[in-house]
Write a structure and sequence with these properties.
With 206 residues, the chain is an alpha/beta fold. It has one domain: 3-Layer(aba) Sandwich (Rossmann fold). 56% of the residues lie in helices and 13% in strands. It has eight helices and five strands; from the N terminus they run βαβααβααβααβα. A five-stranded parallel sheet has the order 2-3-1-4-5, with helices on both faces. α1 packs parallel to α8 and α2 runs antiparallel to α3. The longest helix is centred in the middle third of the chain and has 25 residues. The protein is globular, with a radius of gyration of 16 Å. Bound molecules: adenosine-5'-triphosphate (ATP) and magnesium ion.
């Protein structure tokens, strides 16, 4: 039986990932459903009971930067073992709101953790495993912060400065340059309709 495909959505806070998640799942179900397989929608940090508990701590408790990176990868290990790997093995597709590129972008680019440490954790937790497709919603930090607005109390990442998100965005773009075969960069300043037209092309190609 063919393995399913693993798709991740990335971008800085307010870029538009969650806006397109349910729509994208529906588009994928249209394509995957007739083969008898499901589309599993999930997120990071989180995706499992343990991962969601870690998410709550990561988003609200202050901690040492290396602790933060280790907890991200601990949650990811559990996510891979309990959810992602079993789903792909049974032929289902998996759609995740964030994955490892976010750890490089936030803990590496944003907070300045040396990249070699993140690369070591990535190898340890994933081996050579990578998403089949990563959609990077790319926007300038000012656009993203205007979109985030003041709707609710910001978490530890959402409350960061435009300078932080400038570094985060740059690291996302560097990761995309390093692995162009799996990245699709979408200009997320465009209208939601135009972005969905492009997403449709991207997943049809996959
Ligand atoms: N293309 C767009 N044009 C205008 N507004 C948009 C667009 N995409 C998203 N938005 C709006 O921007 C806000 C943030 O979008 P969304 O929550 O999807 O971002 P996100 O990438 O999931 O952020 P986070 O990482 O914080 O979860 C929402 O209010 C959404 O309606
Ligand atoms: Mg979101």
């Amino acid at each position: 039986m063919a393995r399913g495909k693993f798709i991740t959505l990335e971008g800085i806070d307010g870029a538009g990932k969650t806006t397109h998640l349910a729509w994208l799942r529906e588009r994928l179900e249209h394509k995957v459903g007739p083969t008898g397989h499901a589309v599993v929608m999930t997120r990071e940090p989180g995706g499992t009971p343990l991962g969601e508990a870690l998410r709550n701590i990561l988003l609200h408790e202050s901690m040492d930067l290396e602790t933060e990176a280790l907890l991200m990868f601990a949650a990811r290990r559990e996510h891979l073992a309990q959810v992602i790997e079993p789903a792909l093995a049974r032929g289902d597709w998996v759609l995740s709101d964030r994955f490892t590129d976010a750890t490089f972008a936030y803990q590496g680019g944003g907070r300045g953790l040396p990249r070699d440490k993140l690369e070591a954790l990535e190898r340890w937790v994933q081996g050579g495993f990578q998403p089949d497709l990563t959609v990077l919603f790319d926007v300038p930090p000012e656009t993203a912060s205007a979109r985030r607005g003041a709707a609710r109390e910001p978490d530890r990442f959402e409350s960061e400065s435009d300078a932080f998100f400038t570094r985060t965005r740059a690291e996302y773009l560097r990761r995309a340059e390093e692995a162009p075969y799996r990245f699709a960069i979408v200009d997320s300043t465009q209208s939601i309709e135009e972005i969905r037209r492009q997403l449709d092309e991207i997943v049809t190609a996959l």
